[in-house]
Amino acid sequence: MGTPRDSREEQVTVVLDRLYEAYPDTTISLNFSNRLELLVAVVLSAQCTDERVNDVTETLFEKYQTAEDYANADEAELADDIYGITFHNNKAGYLTSMGETLVEEHDGEVPDTMSALTDLSGVGRKTANVVLQHGHDVVEGIVVDTHVRRLSRRLGLTAEETPEKIERDLMGVVPESDWQQFTHLLISHGRAVCDARNPSCDDCVLEDVCPSSKLDHDVDLASGEAW
């Protein structure tokens, strides 16, 4: 029980094979119909559940349909329109500023480069990676959200701690062809089985190769703390 493979590359192979089988249809859970909607949804999803974002954007996307709509929005009104989203006041400011930049520098279109995306308000590398992958079919890296950070450390795939360092480390051991799905697989498994506080190790398809298994180990490698 709980014995990882001899190398990180072998561990990644086992993790991918089993999670592909367990979650064959996993994909992004945010609802969107175009690149702008994707960008807005991902910005809103920071420290907020995708479920809540989808509830809010159902009406938001009817009212704000172009970059100009966000650029010209009253920030207080926009904050009310996204009320219920974590840090809704800050994110309203991000969206209006983002809309202005899209209009002034990109003819209202969502750019397709990492540098241009990360120049937008509220957009870091994680957000940019999502937009590139699902909006432009460009895969430049691995999206490291809270689930990917937790599971990649818990499974012994990386010992790095920050999202940026974790991403670089994982890109060296995860096959490039799997970069996009790697994120979705770990998110699905994190939500269904391997949650932060009380993972269901008894029901986990990776338990026998997990160096953090509660059935066989005393420490959660994700946090470095005892179970």
Automatic annotation (TrEMBL):
Q: How is the co-factor bound, per the entry?
A: Binds 1 [4Fe-4S] cluster.
Q: Does the keyword Iron-sulfur apply?
A: yes
MF terms in GO: 4 iron, 4 sulfur cluster binding; class I DNA-(apurinic or apyrimidinic site) endonuclease activity; DNA binding; G/T mismatch-specific thymine-DNA glycosylase activity; metal ion binding
EC number in record: 4.2.99.18
Q: Give the CDD domains listed for this entry.
A: ENDO3c
Tell me a GO biological process for this protein. base-excision repair, AP site formation
What does this protein need as cofactor? [4Fe-4S] cluster
What Pfam families does the record point to?
Answer: EndIII_4Fe-2S, HHH, HhH-GPD
Q: Which reaction does it catalyse?
A: Hydrolyzes mismatched double-stranded DNA and polynucleotides, releasing free thymine; 2'-deoxyribonucleotide-(2'-deoxyribose 5'-phosphate)-2'-deoxyribonucleotide-DNA = a 3'-end 2'-deoxyribonucleotide-(2,3-dehydro-2,3-deoxyribose 5'-phosphate)-DNA + a 5'-end 5'-phospho-2'-deoxyribonucleoside-DNA + H(+)
Q: Spell out the family assignment given in the record's similarity comment.
A: Belongs to the Nth/MutY family.
Task: Sum up the protein's function in the record's words.
Answer: DNA repair enzyme that has both DNA N-glycosylase activity and AP-lyase activity. The DNA N-glycosylase activity releases various damaged pyrimidines from DNA by cleaving the N-glycosidic bond, leaving an AP (apurinic/apyrimidinic) site. The AP-lyase activity cleaves the phosphodiester bond 3' to the AP site by a beta-elimination, leaving a 3'-terminal unsaturated sugar and a product with a terminal 5'-phosphate.
According to UniProt, the name of this protein is Endonuclease III
Organism field: Salinigranum rubrum
